[in-house]
Amino acid sequence: METPQDKGNNKLTAAGWLALAVLLGFFGVSLWYAVKVWSAMAGTHMSGFGWLFLVLGVVVTIGLGAGLMFLVFYSSRHDMDQ
Questions:
Q1: Is 13 helix (H, G, I), strand (E, B) or coil?
Q2: Alpha helices in 1-82 (DSSP H)
Q3: CA dihedral 18, 24, 27, 28 (to 10 degrees)
Q4: How far apart are CA 66 and CA 72, in angstroms?
């Protein structure tokens, strides 16, 4: 099956630019909100267990995302998507 990348056509269409703009907007709003919340918690103390579980949550979330992406690419390359 031939994809647009096989033809050498790598230009974004209007829909692609719109999707990119919307995603960048979502990213900007989430970044603004994260900075706002982080600044509001400036005087809050977190215990060692709090930091431990925060780090574990980040590591598990990134590991889960990476594992799922690995499975997507693995199944695609080994013709398991049929």
A1: coil
A2: 14-40, 48-77
A3: -120
A4: 10
pLDDT in tens, 1-22: 555 555 666 788 999 999 999 9
CA distance 47 to 28: 30
Extents of the domains making up the chain: 1-43, 45-82
pTM: 0.54
Instruction: For residue range 18-63, list pLDDT tens digits in order.
Output: 999 999 999 999 999 999 998 998 888 989 999 999 999 999 999 9
Q: Are 20 and 12 in contact (CB under 8 A)?
A: yes
Structure tokens that stand for 5 in this block? 């990348």
